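Protein in question passed on here:
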Amino acid sequence: MKNSRRLILIHALLALILDSACVVLAETDAEQNSSVNGSDTDQSHLTVRPAETLDSINEVKDNFTDLSYREFWINSKIPVLEAAAEDISKSAPIVFFLHGITGSKEQEAYILSRFAEEGYRAVSFDLPGHGERTDGSYMFLDVVEQGMKDLTLILDYYAAEHCNTSHYALGGFSTGAIIAYGMTGVYHPDVLIAASGVSDWNDLQESSLLDRCYESGQQIEPVAIKDTELEELYECNPFSSLSNLKNTAVIISHGLEDTTFDYTEAVKTAAELKKAGNTRVSLNLYETAHSITAGFIDLMIELTGIYLPLTAGSR
C-alpha cells in the first residue's frame, strides 16, 4: 500500500506538471496487482529486461530463427550489428538502438530482434571504447561526441545502400539515449526512444560520469575533464534545441529508483517538449532502477508501429 500511495502522489504531481501529456507509471513489484489508474497491471511491466551479453547473442538468435543477423564493419572502424527479415525491402524503415556505458551492440540483440520481427531493419553498433573496438581509450564526453559522428557515418552507409534513411527511429539506453538526444539537434527522426537517459547535458555533472575513461568496454583510470570540454558540452546541449523535436514522436522511459540519472530529468524533458508544442510525448516511469523493463520494450515497439509505419515512404 505504501508503494501504491507513492505512485499515486507522483502521478498527481506529474499530471499537474505535464497537463495532458501521456504519463504511465508501472510497478515492478509482482505483489502489486493494480496500476495507478486502477486497471490490471500488465505482467510484462513487472519483468526487468535481462542484460544480453556477448556470450548470449546466439541464444537470442536461436529464439528468432526467421531473422537474419549481419555483423560488419564500416570504414574498418565501426562494428555494426543488424537484424532483419531475410527478404526485407530496401524501403523498410530503420530502427537504431544504442547501448550504454560498458555495454556492447550485442546487449541490444533482443531489442533489435523484436523490432526486426515486426518488419523493421534494426541496427546497433559498438560505441567508442566498447565491444570489439580497440581504437584506444575514450573519456565519457568523447564516447558521446564520437558516437554521434559514428551514427552519422552509419546513416551515410545505409543511404549509399539505397535503404530508407528518410524515415527512421533513433533510440538508446542510458548513454545511448544521451547520444540519441544529441543527434536531435542535427537530424529529425520520426521517433526518438530514450530509456534512462538525459537530454540536459548540464545535469551530467551531477552523475560523476564526466571524468570517467573507457577502453574495450571497461572503466579505467579517470581523467580530469578540462573547462574547455565543459564549454563545448554546453554549446551542443540538446535540451536547448528540443523545440526541433516538435514533429518527432518521443517515447521516454525512466526508473523511479534510478540512481545514475534521476527520473525528474525525464519529467523535465517531457515538460519541455510539451511546452515546445509536441503532442506526441509518452513518458513512462517504472518502479525499477537503471534498466529497461520488458513492458517498455513492448510499448516502444507498439508506439513505433503507430508513429513509424512500415509503409513510411520518402519525405
